[in-house]
Amino acid sequence: MRFTSLVVELIRARPRLVVWIVVLAQAGLWLILPMLLYPSPPGDLATVLAFGREYQVGTWLGPPLAFWLADIAFRAAGNNMFGVYLLAQACAVVTFWVYYQLARAIVGGQQAVLAVLLSLTVVAFSSPGVEFGPLVLARPLWALLLLHSWQLIGQNRRNAWFAWSIEAGLLLLTTSAAPGILLLLAGFAVATVRGRRVLMSLDPLYALLVIAVLVLPYLIWLLRADALAMPPWPAISDLGARVLQWGGLLIGLALAMSAIVLLAILNSGWFARNAGEAPIIYRPPVDPLARDFVYFFAIAPALLGSFLAGLFNFDHVVGGAGVALLMSGLAVIVATGDLIHLRRQRMLRTVWAAAVAAPAVAVIATAFVLPWTGAAEVPTALPAKAIAHFFGDNFERRTNQRLRAVAGDPQLASFIAMSAGRPHLLLDATPERTPWLSAAKFSETGGVVVWRASDTSGTPPPEIAQRFPGLVPEVPRAFEWMVNGRQPLLRVGWAIVRPKAP
What we know:
Layout: H1 6-13, H2 15-37, H3 45-52, H4 65-76, H5 81-107, H6 109-120, H7 134-153, H8 161-172, H9 178-191, H10 193-199, H11 203-225, H12 239-256, H13 258-266, E1 280-282, H14 288-311, H15 321-324, H16 328-336, E2 339-341, H17 345-368, H18 370-373, H19 384-399, E3 405-408, H20 410-416, E4 424-425, H21 439-445, E5 447-452, H22 462-467, E6 477-479, E7 490-497
Parallel strand pairs: 3-4, 3-5
Antiparallel strand pairs: 1-2, 5-7, 6-7
Protein name: Glycosyltransferase RgtA/B/C/D-like domain-containing protein
Subcellular location: Cell membrane
Pfam families: PMT_2
C-alpha cells in the first residue's frame, strides 16, 4: 500500500465500479455542456430531426433507424433537445460497457478497465458524440457485434447467433457503411480455423434469415429508388488529391488517439526510477486468436474506412471515427504484455484527466472566446429556439393557421422545423431530397421562406426569388447571438407564402 494509490487498488478490487464511474462521469459532462452552451444543435442534428419527423423508410441521407430514434427522443422530451442529447450519451454508455465486457473476456477485468480508460481519451468519443445520428448509433451496435462475434468465434457460444443477427440487421438500418463493416467480420471468420468451424453450421443461415426480415423494407426502398449504385470512381487526374485526402484522414485518426500514445510513453520503463516499486496489473495469458482479433479490428476499420473515404471524396472516415478507433485502447493493452507496471501514477492520472477534459475546455473556449477574437461564426451559437418561435408565431398570427412548412436557407429552415408545430422541411434547391413536400404543395399549404439577409432591405437572394416567384419580403428580423462579441447581429430575411383557400 505504500507505493500504490487508492485508484490502483480500486481497479484491482472493483473494476466494474471504476468503469461505471468514469463512463457515467463523461456522459454526464457531455449531457450538461450542450444544454448550457449550445443554443442550436451541433452539426446536422437539426436536419436529422427534420428527416426523422417524416418517418420515411429511406432517404438520401441513408437508412432510417437513427432518424426515427432521434425524433422519438425529441418528442418524448417535449420537443426539447435534452432528449436527443440524452439518447446520444446513452449510446456512449452502452458502447463502453459492452466494450468492457469484450475486453474482460480477452484480458481479464483489471486490464479491461485500463482499456476503457485509454479509449475514453479518444477525441471521437467526446464532443463529436453529442451529435446524434447514424455515426453515433453505429458505435454501440458495433461494440455488440464485436462482443458476440468473439463469443461465437473465440468461445464457441452458439447461443450468441440470435443477438448477433439482430445487431447486424439494426446496423444495416443505421448506416450505409454497414455492409463493409459486416464484410470485415465475415473476412476474419473465414480467415481463421475456428471462424470457419463456426460458419460450417446451420446457425448462420438462420441469422441471415433474421437479417433479411429486418432490412427487407429498406431494401425494397433501395430498389425502387435506384439507390444501390456505387459512388462514381475518381478520374486518373484526381487520384493524387484523393491519396492526399486519405493521408489527411489517417493523420486525423492518429491525432484523435494521441493521448493513448502519450500515456503509453509516459508509462514506459525507459526513464523510470524505482521500477520495481511500481504496482502491477496482472492478466492471464491471452489466446493467440484473441490477439489477432483485437489487432485486426483495431487496424482494419481505420485503414479501410479512411481509404474508402479518400477514394470517394468523403469528408469523414466511412463508418465514423468512433467505429474505426473503438478497439485502439484494447490493442495497446494486449500489446503491453501480461504484466502492466503503472509507473508515474500521479502524472498518468493528470494527463488522463487533461485528455478527457481538453475537448470540454475547447468547447467552452469556442463558445465564449472565439466571438471576441474573430468574426468567425460559431455554428452552435445560433439562437435556434428564438428563430423557431418567432417565425412560427408570426405565421400563425397572420394566417390564423399553424405553420405547416418551411423552406429557404437549409440551416435556418431546419431550426424552424424544430418548433412546437414541427413544420415540414422543404429543401427547395434540391427538392428530390425531401420527397414528402414539393414546391406546388408548399404553395398550397403555405409556409415561411427564410434566408440570410445582408442588409436592412431584406431582398431575397436571386435563386430563392426564382424558385418562389411573387415573394414579398418582410422587414428582416435581427437576432442576438449567445455571445455577441465582435459579430454583427444575425439578420434573417423572410417572407410568408399564404395558404390557398380550400
